[in-house]
Amino acid sequence: MNIKEQFKDVKNYFSPKIVAEVNDQYVKIAKIKGEEIPWHSHENEDELFYILEGSLLMEIENEAPITMTNGDMYVVPKGINHRVSSVNECSIMLIETKTTKHTGEIESAITKSIEEQSY
Questions:
Q1: Which of 88, 90, 93 is nearest to 17 (CA)?
Q2: CA 72, CA 49: separation in Å to the nearest integer?
Q3: Which of 31, 56, 84, 106 is the most exposed place for a label (fewest CB within 10 A)?
Q4: Could you report the per-residue pLDDT of 59-110, keeping only the tens digit for each?
Q5: Which residues contact 104 (CB under 8 A, 6 or more apart)?
């Protein structure tokens, strides 16, 4: 599989697509543009972000924001309040435990169920 080719099916921002499974983890891709992701946390799961193309602003509560670019990776530890945004389109890969809810316990207009991520 070519990860970058998988993005042709991703039409909407903030709408992860599951592209693979590894043990109890999903490998997902998503396009980010804008600031619609709410502050949220995942009580029991770490979350890995890998930037494939573009620039992503990673905000961690009570820390200075981090600008991530192509090739950068960041693991948000479980229980840590965070959000991401991007001024221009950014393509990312996520690795998350299968129990990870898209926006944690926070429901918003962009929140997607696991079923909506399996396209």
A1: 93
A2: 8
A3: 106
A4: 999 999 999 999 999 999 999 999 999 999 999 999 999 999 899 899 898 9
A5: 40, 41, 42, 43
- Residue in the structure block whose two tokens are 């435990």: 97
pTM: 0.92
List the one residue out of 40, 53, 48, 45 whose CA is nearest residue 10. 53
For 10-41, the pLDDT digits (tens) are 989 999 999 999 999 999 999 999 999 999 99
Contact 58, 74 (CB under 8 A): yes
Q: Which residue has the tokens 């990673």?
A: 58
Report the chain's terminal Cα–Cα distance, integer Å.
16
